[in-house]
Amino acid sequence: xxxxxKCLHIFCRKVLSRNYHVAIVGGASEIGQTIALLxxxxxxxxxxxxxxxxxxxxxxxxxxxxxxxxxxIKGYVGSDSLDSAxxxxxxxxxxxxxxxxxxxxKARLHLNAxxxxxxxxxxSKVSPIPFIGIATEPINVMVPMATEVIRNNGExxxxxxxxxxxxxxxxxxxxxxxxxxxxPQDCKxxxxxxxxxETVIPLLSQAKPACxxxxxxxxxxxxxxxxxxxxxxxxxxxWSPTLSIAYGVSIFVQGILxxxxxxxxxxxxxxxxxxxxxxxxxxxxxxxxxxxxxxxRYSNLSDFECHLLERAIEQLRKDVSKGTKMLELA
Length: 330
What we know:
The chain has helices at residues 2-16, 30-40, 57-65, 82-86, 105-123, 139-153, 166-180, 215-226, 228-235, 243-260, 303-329, and strands at residues 20-25, 45-52, 72-77, 91-94, 131-134, 161-164, 191-193, 200-202, 265-272, 280-288, 291-295. With 330 residues, the chain is α/β, with parallel strands linked by helices. It has two domains: 19-164, 3-Layer(aba) Sandwich (Rossmann fold); 166-329, Alpha-Beta Complex (L-2-Hydroxyisocaproate Dehydrogenase, Chain A, domain 2).
């Protein structure tokens, strides 16, 4: 009888589970290709769309088509085809220029700002507006910018716009597991704030299982955690982290698909939120088929964490303002 119930449950889940249409804008970039590879093998992704302005985009699509999965894949090249690429999407992911040798931070910011403004204008015309996951750096600036463009140009739903910050959560989790010699899958370290060295905060006071770390160790952990992207960039000889970020995007997509499938769950993201002294904030968010809901709150933060939070909020306000000013100057 128990085995029969288990089989019935599996059968019902298969019947009730839908298949979904996912588009990656910037899908021929280094990070976009890795995201596409990971999503290509997700069973609930029935249609995967790759859009990019790069001339090698058709080759990326052809390469991915050789992976034997029961899903369709299609590519679009050029800005004129972006509207077609966005149609019927349940989720749209954006990538963008990454830090690389020969590309200054100022140049990358300009490229990604132009990219996000163009994308946001076009996606705002899609109805109903899909879930939007922005992995375009700097996320603290690009998400408010995209939101403002969408708000002013078409259909707007703040519950469906996310900055993808899953990688921060996984980095804290693996680092914490390493210093405490435990399985990463058996621990949890909440991360809040934003998505930059100055704004991301690992809450060791809330970590599970709790481990006794003295104040010096906590401060050293935080400093090392905040410098992980720089460490990877230096080790990759000037290239940004992409593999762990792509993995985080794939987990984000799966979380959204679960929510669309009627299974509300928690994801880590940077979203429009006025509860923490700034208009945008990152943390663990409950998501259902309608979008983002409540963000998880924590009590009894340490004095050190409260200090970091105050500084992070100051910087987040500047980042949000920076995105708005860039739009005004456009």
